[in-house]
Design brief:
28 helices, six-stranded parallel sheet, Rossmann fold, 15% strand, TIM Barrel
Length: 685
Amino acid sequence: MRTVLCTSPHVRHPAVLQADFEDRRGLMYSFVPIGLLSLAAVIRQSGLCEALLFDINDAINDRRVDPAGEFYCAAAELICSLEPDVVGFMTECDSYHHVLQICAEIRRFRPSAVIILGGPHASTTAAVTLARWNCIDAICVGEGERTVLPLVESLLSVERRNVPGAVLRSRNGEILNGGPAHLVDDLDSLPVPAFEMYEPKEDEEIFLEVGRGCPFACTFCSTAPYWERRHRVKSPQRIVAELSRVENLYGPRRFHFTHDLFTTDRRWALAVSEAIALLDAVPAWTCSARADRVDPELLQQMAKGGCNAIYYGVESGSSRILTTIKKEIPWDVTLRAIDNSISVGIQANAGLVVGFPEDDEDSVRETFDAYTQLLARGAKPVHIFGFCPFNGAASFDAKDLRGTQKHFLDIPLPSSVDTANRQLIVDDPVLFSVYRRLATSTLRSIAPGFIEGIDEFTPLVESCLLPSLIFVGLGVSMLDLYKGWLSWISARNEKLDRPEHRRFYGGALQYATYLFDRAQQLEDIRPDLVPYLDLLQRSFASAASTDLSPLSMATYRSGVMPPDVLRSRIEEGCLVAAEQVVGSFDCEWDLSELLAWTCKQSIPAPRLCRCGYVLQRTGDQSGVRLLQVAPAVLELLESLRHKPLDAASLWAERVHEPCLLTAAGIDGVVQTMVEAGGAGLVRIQ
C-alpha cells in the first residue's frame, strides 16, 4: 500500500508581479513541508504502508505541471502516476481552491484512491468541505501524528468508523465527526521528520519545528486556537539532533524555526540558544517572537546561538486597535525590541495589518506612520497586510459573509480558468474566507482600491526604499505615497486594458516609474533622485528575478582572464566583445553612496561627479548585476554594442570624437579594455 503526501501550491507574489502576471519558471516557493515530513516519519515507523512525498511547487517550477496548460488535470495525472492508495494534501487558506480542484481530478483518474486533507484551513472547514466536495474522503483535524494511522485504516476498511481527530465520509455518504484527538504532550516522543525524503535547492532555507502553540488570545489569529493555545516545545537536545540530521543530509543550511512564539518560555529559549552555540559550526536560523517577550540578554544569547532574524507581529500602530484585538503591547516596547534585536545583529522583520472592522482613517494613518518608523529604524522586511477573517479565529463570524472580492494575486493560469476560480471563491465565502475584506466604507473611501491593493504595496516600497523615505522627508507621508500609487497604477492598468482583478497591482518597475514621474513634478527635490530612479527603472526592466543586488566594478571578478594575459592578448590585436551587457547609463551624479545606503544611515548628500553604470546578465542568466564603472569603460561598452573590435580599430573609429576613451591614444584604449576585462565586462574573441 502506498501513501503520497502532497504540498499545496505556494505562489511567490513578488515574482508574479515582476513577471507582470506572465507564466514564467520560478513563480512558486519550494520548501520543506515539515508537517508532511513528520507524518511520513510516523507512517514509515508504523510499517502500515509506503510513504512518498510530492512537491507540487517544484513540479510547477520545472514545468512537469504547466500553469498554461490543463493545470489541475496535469497535477492529478502526475500524482496518480505514483499509483497511490492514499493521497494526503497539506492545506493553506490561499490555495485551497487549487487543492480541491486537483483532488477532484485525482478522483476522476484514480477512483479507488482515498483522499485526505489536513492542516489549519481544512481543519476549520472540515464539515463544510466534505459536504460541498464529494471528492474528499476525510479531513484530519488538528495534529495529525496520532490520527493519521487509525484514519487510514478506517478509510480502507469495509465499514468506515469514527476516528478521534478526524471528520470523514462513511461508505453511504454520511459525514462522521470523531471529535477532537488529544494533543501530543511530549513532542520529543514523535519520530524525527523524514528529512531524507526531500531534497532542497542549493540555497533553500530548511523549516525545523521546535515547538507548537501560542498561549495568547489575539482575536484575529487562527493558529493559536488550532493548537488549543497549549505551548509545547521540543527539548534543546532534540532540536540539536534534528539540526545535525539535516546538516548531515544536506550540508550547512539556514533554518527557520517553526513555532508560533519562540520566546514564550524565556528559560527554554535561552537553553536552546546556548545548546546551539556549543556546536562546532553554529547554523543561522530565524524565528517568530512577541516584542514584549524579548530582552537584551535573551537576544544576545539568541544571536550567539545563530539567530539572525526575528519576525515580530506588530499588527497596528494604533493603541485603540491593539486593545480591540487583544494585543496590547505599548509602542515603546515594540521599538525597544526592534532596536535591541538589530543592535546584536538580529534582523528585525515585522508585520502590520489594516482593514480591521474597527479601523478608521486615524488608526490607518497611525499604522502607516508606524510602518515608516520601523523601516527607518532598520526593520526589514516590514509588511502591511489587509485584514481578512480567518476560519477558526475568535473574530470569525460565519454569519457575516460580506466582503468577498475577486481582486487578489494568484498563479497565472489561463484566463478562463482564472475567471472561474475567482467566481468559485465569491460563491463560497465560508470555504474561502481569506479573500474577504471587512473594512468599513469609511476606510474604503480613503482611496479607490485602498483595501484591494494593500497586500502587495509594501514590498514595492522596499524595492525603492531610499527614494520612498526621501519623499517622506519632504513631507509626503507613506499613506499619501500609497494613495498616489493607487491612482497612478489603476490609470496605467486601465489604459493597458488589464483585467479588473489586477487594477491595483504593479511590480517594482512600475513603482519606480511612479516615483520617477512624481519626483519630476517636484521643484525642491534633490538633484540626484531623478537619475537614481531612472537607474532603478533600467535595473528592474533588465532583471529576470526580483532580487537585484547592486555591485561595484571591483566586486565582480569571477571567471575572467588574468590581467597580464588579457593585456597581452589585447596588444596582439585580438577582437574584444562586450560580455552579457544588457544596459548602460551615463550619469552626471555619483550614485554609489545612494546604492550602498542602508537603513539607520543618514541619507548622503548629492555628489556631482560623472559616473557610468552597467547592467550585466549573470552567468546563469537568472539575474542582473549593477556595476559602477569609469566613464571611459562606459564609452568602451557603447563602442562594442554592435560588434567586436580590436584596440586599434576602436581608436581609429572614435579618435575624432571628444571622448575619454581615446584621449590617451591606443595605450589608453588598451588600458580601458584591461580594466573592463578584469571586471568581467568584456571578453577576448
